[in-house]
User: Fold this.
Amino acid sequence: MADRPLRLAFVAQLAIPEETDRRPFRRLSGGCDDAEAFRGVFETMDEASRFRLEAIHADRGEIPALDYDAVILGGSVASVNDRLSWQWALGDWLLRWRTTGRPLLGICGGHQMMAQILGGTVSRRAQGPVSGTRRAVLTADGHGHWLFDGLGANPLFQFAHFDHVSTLPEGATALAMGADTIAAADFGGGWVSVQFHPEVSCDRLATFWNHFTQDPARFEFLPGRERLIENFLRQVPERRERPA
Assistant:
């Protein structure tokens, strides 16, 4: 009997304000739905055939079960320091997910929420927002780490954020830096996160960034950045066993 597909949850927390004019996003794959946009990228991956992807919208009050094999936590227009009711619920769920011993990849706002709920701090960047295509400068711990396998030394990624992780929680390790920001981290137990965006196209990110900031930042075409997500997915079978 063949192994069952592994269950992967993409937890969206984009939290676009209700009053936002959504017309500029109609031409984008997935529109304003971060989970559907991710599905389009996911389906191009070699690892996709091993997983069944399910969408959870935390910003709509949805909370995932604890029986997934892995979770990816997306980015957000909201700051983790807004302390919205759905953010409290999601943070509580993340602490319960931590006890399962199963893997989690956080992206941008997901990276920040993971650091915060584990005891780190997230603050507004005093130097202003970071945007555009920039290098992730790998630390000594980042060089040779499986998360960056096949991506080369100091790879380019898309950055778009106002807040940043100013201090990591105890026991966490910085894997990369970028624009004076902790760009990637390993929290142990299969939990890793990145401040940049390997999950979206340059066109999608530029559309959102320009709409919400009126800053015409330059996002260059970077084929193959989703390799980082595939590196995460390749680790999942090793952590498949459920705790008693």
User: Anything to note?
Assistant: The mean pLDDT is 94. The chain is about 20% helix and 25% strand. The longest strand covers residues 181-188.
